[in-house]
Amino acid sequence: MLWQEYCGFLDLDMDSYMSIQNRLMLEQISLWSNCELGKQILDGKKPETIDEYRKMMPLSTYGDYADILLQKKGEMLPDQPVIWIQTTWEGGKQPIKMAPYTKSMLDTYRSNMVACLMLSTSSEKEKFDVRVTDKILYGLAPLPYATGLFPLLLNEEIAIEFLPPVREAEKMSFSECNKAGFKLGLEKNIDYFFGLGSVAYFISLSLSSMSKTSSQSSTTNDAKSSKTTYSLPMLGKLILAKYRCKKENRNLKPKDLFKLKGFMVAGTDNHCYKDDLEDLWGIRPMEIFAGTEPSCIGTETWTRNGMYFFPDACFYEFIPEDEMNRSLDDDSYQPKTYLMNEVIPGEMYELVISVLKGGAFMRYRVGDVYRCMGLENDEDKTRIPRFKYIDRVPTIIDIAGFTRISERSIKSAVDLSGLDIQEWIAVKEYNKQNRPLMHMYVEISTSSISSCGLSKEILKEHLTVYFKYVDHDYKDLKHILGMEPLEITILKSGTFEEYEKQTGRKMRHINPSIYHIKELLSIEKQNFAVNNNRRGV
Amino acid sequence: MDSFVFIPVIALCCYTFLLLSFLAAKKNKLINSFLLFLSAMILWTGGSLCMRMQLWPTLNFWYDVSMLGLTLMPIAFFIFIVEFIGLKDRFFKLFYLVIIAFVNIINITTGFFLSAPQALTAPDGKASFVYSISWPMTILFAVCAAITFHSLYLLFKYSKTNEMAKKQFTPIVRGVFILVIGHLALFVPLFKGFPTDILSGVCFAFFLFYALYQRRLFKLTLLVSRGSCYAIAAGLSLLLFSNFIGLFQSFIDNNLANFQDHSMLIIAVFFTMATFLIYQGMKKFIDKVFIKDEILQAENLKEFSLTVSKSLNVNEILKALVDVIQKTIAVDKIYICIRNEKNDSFVMAHSTSALDKKMVCIRKDNPIVSLLSNNAGCLLMKDFKRNVAYKSMWEDEKKQFSDLKIECFVSLKDASELVGIVLLSGKDKHSSFTDNDTNFLGYVDSIGSIAVSNSRLYEKAYLEARTDELTGLLNRKYFYETIQYEYENNRGQSLALIILNIDDFKLYNQLYGTKEGDIALQKISRIIQASVGSNGYVSRYSGKEFAIILPFYDLLEAKNLAEIIRLQISDMNIRVAEYSFKKLTLSGGICSIPYAASSVKELIDNADRAIYHVKRNGKNAIMTYSERDQNHVAGNVTTDTLGQKENVYSDYETTIYALTAAIDTKDHYTFDHSNNVAYYAVELAYAYGMNKETANNIRESALLHDVGKIGIPEHIFNKPGPLTAKEYEIMKGHVENSIGIIRHLPSLDYVIPAVIGHHERYDGQGYPRRISKEDIPVSARILCIADAFDAMISVRSYKKPYSVRHSLEIINDEAGLQFDPILAHVFIDAVNNGLIKVQIAG
User: Fold this and answer.
1) Residue B386: Cβ-neighbour burial (10 angstroms; 0-12, 13-18, 19+)
2) Contact A27 B394 (CB under 8 A)
3) Chain A residue with minimal CA distance to B158?
4) CATH code for A398-534?
5) Residues of chain A with C-beta less than 8 angstroms from the C-beta of B391
6) Is the N or C terminus of chain B more exposed, i.e. has fewer CB atoms within 10 Å?
7) Interface test with chain B among A9, A13, A22, A27, by most B beta carbons within 10 Å
């Protein structure tokens, strides 16, 4: 019964899925085109059908809503927002984005989160194990960020205990919060873990050291941490685990202490961490797809193999890859979109959402790229399209779900640094450990080569400092995850110019095609074969 | 102990009764486990009873039976608990079964744990049983206790995580508690000799029974059948019989010596009667305590189906539907939404209270519609909310349901098609809907559905039979029925009839097409209906005639009403801004009983006659019929309308002269001809007794009657000799051409009837419409004579002029064929009398 209520959407066929989508979209269109925001954007026109609406309404980005949403003009929206959720906008004009949430959006969000929680514990259809006495270790940011809604909403539905309790967590720093969570976990056991993939990994690694310190501190009677008391079974587990680790000569892993029922991760680059997280916790994390503007829109199932979009959170449209690229090159181009029942397996799509139930964002380009993995799945017996999250759109470099680096933010970091960089491109790459990094290929101005000390290290240090200055989230990468994700390759002077001369095209600054980069590097080698050692890794 | 022998007997009866009843019930694993438990109890109690009574075959046999029952009891309880919670624990079930089987086999073969007791007979004949208790007995009890504790542990564990289950477990735990107390009480001296263990066993069984009942796993009606009542009555009678037969016999022997010979008979009769009374008593008791609700339900259903089978009125059926639900389930509010044929949405048609808002409307794409269409019976709101389809509900729709506090939906279906939805709000005292309720609603649904769809079909057919399809007014047939009915029912009271006839409606259809004509009819009928309201009946009396039956109206009131309608309709087309539609006018005739008629036929005829007079006098007026005026003006034309018409015509003179001038430039003959025809026609009109205004109308028609000849090629026009068939067709087209020109001048349209009809023949052989006799407007008939006469006496390229005499002869010959006979003779007389002077074309 509960399964049907929350996870019943997995049994839908394409037609019933689309009828939910269409019906709710019609409601949303009528709400939206009657509100001030809608009248302003549509010029007072009132579309009657979804097709009409898609023809009338151009695709939108946050800039189209900024003047109304940043000033929180709730009265201009389709429905009065209950809460405003904040997130970082890409660096530049405005540091933050605000997104309104209406009561019914929150209701949907809640029920979809419960579905995620149930699915995270499931091993097959209709089998789940969620209890009111469960405890969850929560590694995500509190309000006013969207992730902060999760504990609030979930507790309205089921009294799961958050470790540490939400009220206390709001006052703590990130690492304090994690430490407190683990300590409580050692006392009370942990049934679920939910966090950004990268953060979850970082927290998990620090467990062994933490358990070490806590056990040490209990022997040294440290006043602060002497509060940590192990429950009797947990103490037994700890002793057993330590013995086993010693025998196997390895660090303590969370799976030695906890047997998770459910493990959920969100954010980008989860694929880099999933295997390691599975090794650490003994259970494969289930990916959830959520964002500030779209709310919680999709989840994987027990197969952990591709995600499904909730039919009642947003109305989904998909821009095929080539249309997306064309629109990235030409701002004025309106790319074609396809609906959920029109996607083709194997294709990559940029997601476009219209938030249902009185949401503000309509035909909004979230900036995420998905690949359709199939239209039906025998494994979990679904008949709706399944997707895999690929990454942000190519114009944005997102490292570990923490930061959104755009061309504008790199340019301002380069300018502020005062380094005499003539040309640059930035690419998101993965290192040998499969961790994400930002690789910048730079060309130093010929005038500075001989006069300034511009080694790779200096460039890296300098640029890192200014990235941290420009982008606060970038600072958190180091602060929270201990990551330094910048790699520099210095190209010989004139390479970019030569590239343009030879190929007749200019390179995209952010994430140009891998083939173009290879071409660039080979041009560097061909013409200046003498300077072999200048390229760094 | 013997004095309490009835206790194990009663216990045995109870168990057997429960066992038999449940054997009849629908089985599932839980019920089966309860059956197993009852069997164990029967084995235990029955075995020990038989043992104590030392029945055949041996004491040892009955002892083993009772031991088997006793040891089976904990495991049956365990299985019951496992099923009750819904666990899937096959291992322990099997494990315990094996252990118990093992224990029993050992005990039966060796008596290792506890061997059969020795029966000692005391001097007073009473038997007592001595057990030789040894230490292995503790093993036996330990095993039983372990299984029981395991069951209780499961209960405890499960209730910790499930609040709902806690309530359901309470009776079971209480039963176990009582069972333990009962067994402990054996050791209390006070109860010595009293089988408290057996009594507590009975209580325990009933507690388990109650737990099952709470879960609604069976229907009491199924258990408490006639058969089970017989069984109980038989058991109790047997008990009575066995205990009291001796006493009774001695009572008869001692006190009623006379009847001694028939003692057996008396006893038999007495016990038969006692059995019968017990049976009746049992049945009443059970009905009252257990199945009162179910009987009530059945009675209500019966009454409901009887009510709806008698009625074909939708509202009555809906009311009965609401009543039966409210009587049986006690819900606060019931709303019934019926499908609207136009847009397939479901609109509220009935509710518990007339004061409820009638705003409930369920769109056809609402998920509840498809859910109810696909599944029969009822759907609880809580289940609907759990259905994926609920996700597509709009917030407004959710709010509508929650404002009305809807908790249950019941479908009304006609075959597989959903025709209505019954919405039920919460039950009294916040109790929730039970399985019984939903079953009941299912029955109501199936009975109600058929009734509703039949009655809707009937009402539709009934409505179609009595109403006019286009206007929705009563049709002619029903008009006669109604007026007759009103006349019969209101004898001595006044009854007025207004007949309204749209002027020149044929022309309107010709000008704008029948579609516009239909729209105009609908508009007019709406105006009339709105003005009459519920004071009378409006019917479409004929194509362009409306009749209004007004009971209790006198002539004056009726005339005022008709005048109001006439004014509204003459304003009707003014509002259409983009096109200049012709103004529609009405001619109305009024008559009333008893003032001017004494029967329905007379009433209708007189009203018709009044219209005729209006038409004769220039239309667009209301006239009442009165006996005295019949031979004079025969009416009472409202003076203001006549004044209005004077102004209307004078305005168009200029246009008419412009058009005639146009004819003149094309063909001077036609110009002269038109002028001559105008003269003859006007004179004929006067001679016929028409007023000046009509004569003026005819004059203008005559001036314009050949305006269409502008479009005829000159070679045909002036062709000497006869025309070919093709040329004649073209020539005939001048009538249509004339209309084509005049129709663009809505202000002149009043001439069209005359123009379009001036080549029609009285016998219907003319053109273009081949209408005949009075269907041809009188102005056209006049024009026809005037036109023909002028043509005959004129010189044309293809013929010589006829003499006046010859022409008049032809007219005389053609009277009744080409010409209106009356008008023809009036014309001939007028020419002969010199009233009409012959105009010789120049």
Assistant:
1) middle
2) yes
3) A131
4) 3.30.300.30
5) 9, 20, 24, 108, 311-312
6) C
7) A27
Mean pLDDT computed over B276-293: 73
A466 contact partners, CB below 8 Å, separation of at least 6: A413, A414, A416, A417
Give the distance from residue A341's alpha carbon to the nearest chain B alpha carbon, in angstroms: 17
Which residues 646-685 of chain B have a CB within 8 Å of chain A? none
d(CA A95, CA A91): 6
Confidence class of residue A210 from pLDDT cuts 50, 70 and 90? low
Which residues in A lie closer than 8 A to residue B163 (C-beta atoms)? none
Is the model more confident about A310 or about A128?
A310
Strands A314-320 and B586-593: unpaired
Interface test with B, best of A9, A17, A20, A114 (most B CBs within 10 A): A20
| Higher-scoring residue by pLDDT: A383, B635 | A383
Contacting residues of B for A11, CB less than 8 Å apart: 388
Residue A4 to residue B365, Cβ atoms within 8 A:
no
Quick one: tokens of B764?
Answer: 């219907």
CB B298 within 8 A of CB B268: no
Give how far Cα B438 sits from Cα of A431, B378, B433, Å: 63, 6, 7
Beta strands in B92-229 (DSSP E): 118-121, 127-130
pLDDT of A537 over the 50 cut: no
Q: Which residues in chain B touch residue A4, judged by CB atoms under 8 angstroms apart?
A: 386-388
CB < 8 Å from A in window 324-383 of B:
365, 367
Q: Chain B residues with CB inside 8 Å of A2's CB?
A: 386
State the best of B158, B395, B397, B398 to mutate against chain A, taking most chain A CBs within 10 Å: B395
C-alpha–C-alpha distance, residues A457 and A464, integer Å: 10
Alpha helices (runs of H) in B553-667, residue ranges in sequence order: 555-572, 600-616, 639-650, 653-666
Cα–Cα distance measured from residue B353 to residue B362, given in angstroms and rounded to the nearest whole number = 19
Chain A residues with a Cβ under 8 Å from any Cβ in chain B: 1-2, 4-5, 8-9, 11-12, 16, 19-20, 23-24, 27, 79, 104, 108, 131-133, 311-312, 357-358
Q: B208-252 pLDDT, tens per residue? A: 778 777 766 665 555 556 666 677 777 777 777 776 777 777 888
Per residue in B376-432, pLDDT tens?
778 888 888 888 889 899 988 998 888 888 989 988 887 778 888 999 988 876 777
Which two structure tokens, joined as six digits, stand for B398? Answer: 């959710």
What is the phi-psi region of residue A401: left when phi exceeds 0, alpha when psi lies from -120 to 50, beta otherwise? left
Q: Is the ipTM of this complex over 0.95?
A: no
Cβ pair A398, A460 in contact under 8 A? no
Strands A161-163 and A135-139: parallel
| Residue ranges of domains in chain B, CATH in brackets | 2-219 (1.20.1070.10), 236-290 (no CATH), 294-465 (3.30.450.40), 468-639 (3.30.70.270), 651-832 (1.10.3210.10)
B642 pairs with which residues across the strands? none
> In chain A, where are the structural domains located?
2-73+308-393, 131-260, 398-534
> Region A163-190: what's the mean pLDDT?
82
B161: nearest CB among A20, A131, A358: A131
Task: Report residue A243 CA to chain centroid gap.
Answer: 38
Q: With contacts defined as CB-CB under 8 Å, which chain A residues touch B367? A: 23
Average pLDDT for residues B271-295, to the nearest whole number?
Answer: 75
Of all residues in chain B, what percent are helix, strand and coil, respectively (each to 5)?
Answer: 65, 10, 25
pLDDT tens for each residue of B326-385? 888 878 888 989 888 777 889 888 888 777 766 788 988 899 998 888 877 788 888 888
